[in-house]
Design goal:
By secondary structure, this protein is α+β, with helices and mostly antiparallel strands. It has 4 domains: 15-73, Arc Repressor Mutant, subunit A (Orthogonal Bundle); 81-125, no CATH class; 131-210, SH3 type barrels, CATH 2.30.30; 233-312, Alpha-Beta Plaits (2-Layer Sandwich), CATH 3.30.70. The protein contains 10 helices and 12 strands. It has helices spanning 15-27, 34-41, 45-58, 83-98, 100-113, 134-146, 212-220, 244-249, 279-285, 295-312, and strands at residues 32-33, 64-65, 71-73, 148-154, 163-176, 179-186, 189-194, 198-207, 233-239, 257-260, 266-272, 289-293. The strands form 3 sheets. Strands 7-6-5-4-8 form a 5-stranded antiparallel beta sheet. A 4-stranded antiparallel beta sheet has the order 10-11-9-12. It has a 3-stranded antiparallel beta sheet with strand order 1-3-2. A hairpin with a 2-residue loop joins strand 5 and strand 6. Helix 2 (34-41) crosses helix 3 and helix 4 runs antiparallel to helix 5 (100-113). The relative contact order is 0.06.
């Protein structure tokens, strides 16, 4: 039996060898370019182009051209896509909403994992651009992971002077209503530092311990107005039947309890640490939501609303 040679006189792989390797590499998930292979195998680009043309005819289920028309890949079918691909596509879409600068830094990392993304997902997250604070975010991520204290140079909103904070214990970077904050402990208090007001972050080598109670409060928080210094208390809301479905689809918090009433309305029970957590809900769903108790929350809201209406018609 004759044995097929694998290389030509100049040492470059012969056609059958090239075809076998191309198919194997495509099957392993690689995307191959004509220029890349021509240089690797020391043949002309036209030779590689003929290889792909022939392979596409012989194995259409194994070879296709990618969106940029510069590379070839294994066809993306519903069977070849996996959960990882789907997660990457969703991340790619969401990262775009975080900001241009942030996207420029994050996109190459995602692209390493998935060279060409043809995404069916569209997400619209109203998140502010924190790309200019990318390096600070990286520092905070490391400090949170290692439980290291940090020092912050911070410019409070509306002020021009920088305040220095030392021995800051970073707990989490959080996003509420599209704005980024650092949740941290400082001098026995829990503070929320607005990320874009942090001018400088320096990580120290001093280790701290997290208070699990604070993390529990964070998990149940409705918005940025939550407090970790007050014991959670119960608030009961009346929900009009027209909007019940929205609270069923997306609970306001993990402690939400929804009770359907005989008249079609619902009672929503939440645990909060600050009345301010409730006011945004009342404003957003007005007049479909009311506070049952504690009644002072509804009374204060009514006063605020009456004052607004009075001033609006002056």
């Amino acid at each position: 039996m004759a044995i097929l040679a694998e290389t030509g006189l100049r040492g470059n792989p012969l056609q059958h060898k090239r075809h076998a390797e191309i198919l194997e590499r495509l099957d392993n998930g690689e995307e191959l370019s004509i220029g890349q292979l021509a240089k690797e195998w020391e043949v002309t680009p036209k030779t590689i182009q003929r290889d792909f043309d022939k392979l596409k005819q012989m194995y259409p289920q194994k070879v296709e051209r990618s969106e940029d028309k510069k590379r070839y890949r294994k066809p993306l079918t519903k069977h070849s896509r996996n959960d990882g691909d789907m997660v990457l596509e969703m991340l790619e879409s969401m990262v775009k909403d975080i900001g241009v600068d942030f996207y420029k830094k994050a996109h190459p990392l995602l692209e390493r994992l998935q060279r060409q993304i043809k995404s069916p997902f569209y997400t619209r997250l109203d998140i502010e651009d924190v790309g200019s604070k990318f390096n600070i975010m990286v520092q905070l991520e490391k400090a949170i992971e290692k439980k290291f204290e940090v020092s912050l140079s911070y410019i409070p909103y509306g002020e021009n002077t920088t305040k220095e904070y030392i021995h800051v214990k970073p707990l989490k970077v959080i996003v509420y209503e599209g704005f980024w904050y650092l949740l941290a402990q400082h001098k026995q208090y829990t503070k929320k530092f607005y990320i874009k007001s942090i001018a400088k972050c320096t990580m120290t080598d001093k280790v701290f311990k997290r208070d699990p109670k604070i993390m529990d409060y964070l998990e149940s928080a409705i918005n940025i107005w939550f407090s970790t210094d007050i014991k959670p208390y119960e608030v009961r809301l009346w929900i009009d039947e027209d909007i019940i479905v929205y609270f069923e689809r997306k609970p306001i918090s993990k402690n939400q309890k929804l009770y359907i009433q005989s008249d079609g309305s619902a009672e929503l029970v939440l645990k909060v640490t600050n009345d301010e957590e409730i006011y945004p809900i009342l404003k957003y769903w007005l007049p479909k939501v009311r506070v049952i108790e504690p009644i002072h929350i509804q009374e204060n809201f009514n006063k605020s609303l009456a004052q607004y209406l009075q001033e609006s018609f002056l």
